Amino acid sequence: MTESQNTKPEIDAPEGPAPSELEIVDITVGEGDEAKSSSTVNVHYLGVSYDTGEEFDSSWSRGEPINFPLSNLIRGWQEGIPGMKVGGRRKLTVPPALAYGAAGSGHPLSGQTLVFVIDLLGVK
């Protein structure tokens, strides 16, 4: 896995069964301001399916980070980003219950465990 915020991360294909709980792994610990649950975050991220390893979304591919209130994002992000500091890179493995729900709930990613690598660029 790459470790620079200047480059799009690569995620190795996960092995074994998908976790049933949110997994949080700091790849790089930042030294800037800390994200809180009430923060608006500015992030670069890559998202892949745990089962296939296929990318389903990436701010890197669009060429610009996203800026959103954390409260508007999936629960896995709401629980996995607070405590992260600007300059950090964190991997979140998010089970369906904290992502887009059980299979058949209407979202194309429902029923899937998702893996994100998130670079925290700023908080407000």
Query: Helix-strand pattern, N to C?
Result: EEEHEHEE
Task: Please mark out the parts with pLDDT under 50 across 5 or more consecutive residues, or reply none.
Answer: none
What is the CA-atom radius of gyration, in angstroms?
A: 14 Å
* Range of strand content: 25-35%
How many domains? The number is 1
CATH class: Alpha Beta
Count every beta strand, where a strand is a DSSP E run of 2 or more residues: 6
Percent of residues in helices: under 10%
CATH topology-level name: Chitinase A, domain 3
How would a textbook summarize the main sheet? Answer: 6 strands, antiparallel
Count of DSSP helices? 2
CATH architecture: Roll
Oligomer: single chain
Distance between the termini: 28 Å
Taken from the alpha-carbon principal axes, the silhouette is: globular
Protein name: Peptidyl-prolyl cis-trans isomerase
InterPro entries: PPIase_dom_sf, PPIase_FKBP_dom
Region (Disordered): 1-22
Pfam families: FKBP_C
Walkthrough of the structure:
- The structure is a single chain.
- The protein has 124 residues and is mostly beta strands.
- It is 8% helix and 32% strand.
- It has helices at 59-62, 75-80; strands spanning 23-28, 40-49, 55-58, 66-69, 89-94, 114-123.
- Strands 1, 2, 3, 4, 5 and 6 form a 6-stranded antiparallel sheet that branches.
- The longest helix is centred in the middle third of the chain and has 6 residues, at 75-80.
